[in-house]
Amino acid sequence: MDLLLLLTSALLCSCGPVNTESVFQIASVTLSIEPRAAVRRNTNVTLRCQASVISLAQLNREYTLYKDNSVIYNKNTSSKEDFLYHLPEARVSNNGRYKCMVRIMGQEMTSKSEKLTVTGMSPPILHADKSRTTEGEGVTVRCLAPGETGSFFFYFYDNSSEIHDEHRNTNQAEIKLPLSDIGAHMIHCIYKVFIMSESVTSDESNTVIVTVEELSIKPFLEISPVNNIYEGDNLTIKCSILGFNQSHKGMNLLLNQGTNLLSVGNATAAIEYNMMVEATAPTLSFDCRLTVKNLIKVDTKTIRVTELFSVPQLIMSPPEVFQMKPMTLICKSQHVALERVNKEDLTYSLDPAEHFLTPNGAGIFSGRALKNEFNYTCIAEAKGIRKRSGTLTINPKVPVSVPSIRVADWPILGESFRIFCQSSKGSGPITYSFWKGKTQMGTPIIKSFGQPAYISVVINDVKEINLFTCKANNGGEEEQQSAALDTAVIEPITNPILTVIPDPVEGNDLYLICSVQGTPPVTFRWFRHDKETPLKVTTSLSNNSNYQITGLSKEYSGMYYCEADNRANFKVQSDLVDVEVRMALWKKALIGGVLLLVASLLIMVSCVLYYKHRRGKRETAAELSVKPASPKSDESLTVNLTHDTEVYNAATDAVSFYDDKVGRVTNGTRGSVASLPADISNRSSYSIPATV
Ligand SMILES: *[C@@H]1O[C@H](CO)[C@@H](O)[C@H](O)[C@H]1NC(C)=O
Ligand SMILES: *[C@@H]1O[C@H](CO)[C@@H](O)[C@H](O)[C@H]1NC(C)=O
Ligand SMILES: *[C@@H]1O[C@H](CO)[C@@H](O)[C@H](O)[C@H]1NC(C)=O
């Protein structure tokens, strides 16, 4: 009451002088563990929290105790005494770090933390509800951790092997162990206490021996007959309980073949089961199963079964057949138990029944193949047992058609090219062979349907191309031969010749004709040898082409050549041709005329000058007459020289007579007659010079 008044007055007079009553400070907080931090189990441990507070008044204190940062206790007190927390008879579960916090009027302080370590755990105690039991019954065991606290894991061991674990928050665990094996079982347990993320493991418990005794009853399986069992035989199978007495309750019997349940029974009704054996496997295994509570006891027996006849096989002869060709199917069981079944009793049939095929002896069916794929199975049957063969798929082959022969690209003389051969029909594999005349080229090539065969060849003569043929065969009766290969062959270009017509004359047109040998189309190019770019490029379907120059002039003079190539892609070049452009005719004529004119002018001028120089001297023509006209050899000859009086009038001029052979023979005057000597009179002719 005093304190309340004091506080009230302190609050009311807060603006007044300092109230010393409300002044306080927490000086220190310490936690100590008594008697010490590390103790043995069962020690009475005390945690002491001591707070030293400076104040005048008695202030209310709030203590909070933490273990591993979790609050485990909280208390308000106005006492100045230390705060004590007891851990009577400490256990390992008390292990941890402790600290305490003190709060006074909003002010608080926490101690350093202290670690408590308790060592030692009580050994576990194991108890079993019985020491003898029968198989399937099991035993109830309890594992106890006396006086321990905390969170537990219990582990149970059978003959040192861990067989069970169990989590509990109490210090004991009770479980039921099945214990199936007959004989003694040494059982013990341990436990673990969990503190935070760690655990502490106890010692082993005492060992309890539990003996499991075999159950006196068991299942019994009986099969008859036991030996010489053939498929189709009848079997009697009994599944019963041996050593049964009324004390046993809740029993079940199951009869199985493999995983197939055949029949069910119980303690009072044993199973008797009859069946016809099927030879699904060479051995058949049966089991008789007795279930008592959790226990299952099994008796198993295996019998050997002999087939009456094996599963038939269906085969075709021949193994391959062409459409509509004869074929035979054979259905046969490889093994037949002749001691049990007669050959005549074993029958074979086709499924679908005799489809276009007729039976032709036991298990033999003959006929012609269909055009399409067809599936057959066959069935062998004897003594009511049927066995079916696997499916035989017959896929009749299609005969190969006449193959076509071709080349992929233009064959070039002297170069390798490929010849292809392919049949448009026919089941693969197809064998192709290539022929040149009567010679086979290389080895036969095997291709599947739709794939062409090919070879690479070289020919050096165009005519060889038509010698090639190919043959196709897919195992049928006849081989098919193609027609002869028919295709153009490209001859590479040879012999380029450049011809120039007509004579290159100024002003005229000129043709540069390039001609070659080889297969058109041909690409021609004309060049002037001093220039790199062609004058003209043209592709022609004939083996020659020309380049025309119109209006020749001197500048066109030069060396020319041409180039040519075709699809053989081999370029050739002609020789160089010299073109020299000559002057035009009219120019020559003009020049000639002018020269003539100049010459005649010169002559005239010189004549005039000559006459002027000779003054009286004249020039004249003389005329000679000879008598007789045909003189005899011994006659003398009279030669009379007459003058053209109009021209010749100089009386004193001398005349000379000349013989063509001997020269001048005599002199005379104008109009004179000369008598010539006989020895020269037989001359045939005389002459006088023009100028006398
Ligand atoms: C521990 O305290 C209990 C009473 O709380 C007392 O009976 C016991 O004897 C004490 N043990 C020891 C070892 O002092
Ligand atoms: C034949 O049987 C095969 C499977 O075995 C099947 O894929 C096929 O279609 C059958 N052919 C015919 C013609 O029935
Ligand atoms: C050009 O072809 C013709 C036939 O078209 C032939 O007569 C002539 O010889 C060929 N000339 C050359 C140079 O091959």
Automatic annotation (TrEMBL):
CDD domains: Ig (cd00096). Pfam families: Ig_2 (PF13895), Ig_3 (PF13927), Ig_C17orf99 (PF17736). One of its GO terms (molecular function) is transmembrane signaling receptor activity. InterPro entries: Ig-like_dom, Ig-like_dom_sf, Ig-like_fold, Ig_Fc_receptor, Ig_sub, Ig_sub2, IL-40-like_Ig. Residues 1-20 form the signal peptide. Keywords: Disulfide bond, Glycoprotein, Membrane, Signal, Transmembrane, Transmembrane helix. GO terms for cellular component: external side of plasma membrane. GO terms for biological process: cell surface receptor signaling pathway; cell-cell adhesion via plasma-membrane adhesion molecules; immune response. Residues 17-117, 496-578 form the Ig-like domain. The chain crosses the membrane at residues 589-611. It comes from the Eukaryota. The keyword Membrane applies. PANTHER family: IMMUNOGLOBULIN FC RECEPTOR, PLATELET ENDOTHELIAL CELL ADHESION MOLECULE-LIKE ISOFORM X1. This is Ig-like domain-containing protein.
